[in-house]
Amino acid sequence: MPYVPPTAVNTTLRLRALREVMEKQNLTAYIIPGTDAHLSEYIAIRDARVTFMSGFTGSAGTAVVTMDKATLWTDSRYWVQAERQMDCNWALEKDVSTSSITNWLIKEVAAGEEIGFDPYVFSVKTFNAYSGNLSPASRVLKSIPDNLVDKVWSDRPPISTDSLVRLPDNIIERTWQQKVAYIRGMMTENPYEPTAVLLSALDETAWLFNLRGNDIPYHPFFYSYTLLTMDGIMLFVHTARVTEELKTYLNSACYTEGCVQILEYGQERTQLKAYLTRPNVRVWAGTEYTNQALYELIPEDKLMTTDYSPVLTTKAVKDPTEQRILREAHVRDAVAVMQLLVWLEKNVPSGKETEVTAARYVDECRSKQKNSRGPSFETISASGPNAALAHYSPTEETARVLSVDEMYLVDSGGQYLDGTTDITRTVHLGTPTDFQREAYTRVLMGNIEISRNIFPDGTRGINMEMLGRRALWEVGLNYGHGTGHGVGNYFGVHEWPVGFQSNNIPFREGMFTSIEPGYYKENDFGIRIEDIAMLTPIKTKYGNNFLTFDIVSLVPYDNKLINTSLLSPQQLDWLNRYYQMVRDIMGPELKTQGHHELHDWMMKHTEPFPTPHNSAPITSYSFSLLLSLLSTLLLQHLL
């Protein structure tokens, strides 16, 4: 029997059972992507098939099982984690490209033999990439809609039975009817004349109808599809979870273009087929989130594709109400993160606190804030070498005792009824080394350089991504994860399609994105500084239609780790103006909540750094933000 590390899962029996099912299907190999039928990044436990088969719990990975081998592909964020979690039945491949997987399959599978896959968990692009490489090599992809892992997963968790809920009217600017009308307007204006939009990503349907659920841990989503046509709306959900109140809200008792037909989840293929029998119809599908099981039903002459559906691109730009309440959520969230930092200063020297107790503490602090709905992801609470794992989350078995001799990184966020937050701070509660201070400062420089950047409206994030790396590159350092991602309003903490990657859409006013460069020294320490920013217009001397980033995360950095001699005058000026904004916004909030000791801590940690020149005033937009937030806080206090 193979040796099983204490942090790994013994997968011998699971692999044996899967191979027995594969043999009955005449399969030589079976591909297991780490996603669900909606191609979600974060998935329900019942859809974590890669985890069940391999023991690996990372959020990105593809597994392939043959009759004598089992291999996992994942990116650099998870290499160390995968090696800790997988037993000796599994091998790790570090090239995550599709070509790496298909080349491996071509070596392991003889010509003419079949490779099975579930079309529900393959995107259109993924299927085309696999097929494009395997078909010329005479390896046969076999579509099997009944997932084979599910057949051997005897204790697979059930679907939630909780009812769906609608968002309160006071945090919504656009009703679902207004959103439907807007999307139909986009259909009418499109020269390809689509007659229907197929929505597959979970946040698409939830956004369109202002509904939320609890099917995905940390994310208020529910299993659903929508087929929005010019004369009707079909919503596919588990109908038992739709209350009579929601049926009335959705006008489900009628069958006109302003009514929602509530159909059972699982009927989407049948209903899509029926719609396609109509004459002169054309379905608009976003290829990033439409699964192959639905896509393969649509004839080419009745299909129109874009990377993202019109709902995703519309949702990416927050309306004024969404902007305001998302900012307000970040103000309350900053209180909880500051509480954690003060708690760390007081308690870590005792040597009794661990990564787990710190994670629980910040979660508890958030739970006491207005509109809290829990964490937005599993808190990354990492000390010393654990922090070198970019997406490590502690367990009782792996948690380190927090020490004044190590760096500590906490990446956490909250779900609030009015917004989703995500922030990372890295601190050292003792005496950092010169290298740790330099590495931290260079990460901060990358954060600042992106934050202070001014660029034309419509610029892609990928075109400025290297600003986050330049200070690190100058001394031969780097990081292996993305530089930023979108964030939602009581939605996904990683909200596509906003961000700094090549497949993100151009930046527009009203979008929100994280900015999060980092550095990780294996088996030693990790650094990440993450803020959320809104894309906001800025006046320039000569040009119009320019944007910049307006930071909405309001927690001081660790000044002990900042080597100001490395900062340019412009970077130092930005840092002082940011600290002044933290003071101006968080000062009243902390006093209103009665956190007077925390207020004093915040004031101490946001004292301005000496500068060799006059500081520029806070931007007019940030000043207007300040007035708006102060007015809101005053009104809440009076009420």
Global morphology: globular
| Structural Rg | 25 Å
- Strand count, sense and closure of the main sheet? 6 strands, mixed
State the share of residues found in helices, binned by percent.
25-40%
Distance between the termini: 67 Å
How many H/I helices? 19
Q: Runs with pLDDT <50, length 5+?
A: 615-625, 630-639
The strands making up the biggest β-sheet line up spatially as 4-3-2-1-5-6
Based on helices, strands and strand pairing, what is the structural class?
Answer: alpha+beta
Integer average pLDDT: 94
Proportion of residues in extended strands: 15-25%
Number of strands: 28
Characterize the structure shown.
There is one protein chain. This protein is of the alpha+beta class and 639 residues long. It is built from 19 helices and 28 strands. The strands form 8 sheets. Strands 4-3-2-1-5-6 form a 6-stranded mixed β-sheet, with helices on both faces. Helix 13 packs across helix 17 (569-592), helix 17 (569-592) packs antiparallel against helix 18 (596-605) and helix 17 runs parallel beside helix 19 (620-638).
Give a quick summary of the entry.
This protein is an alpha+beta fold and 639 residues long. Helices cover 34% and strands 18% of the residues.
Structural features:
alpha+beta, six-stranded mixed β-sheet, about 35% helix, disordered C terminus
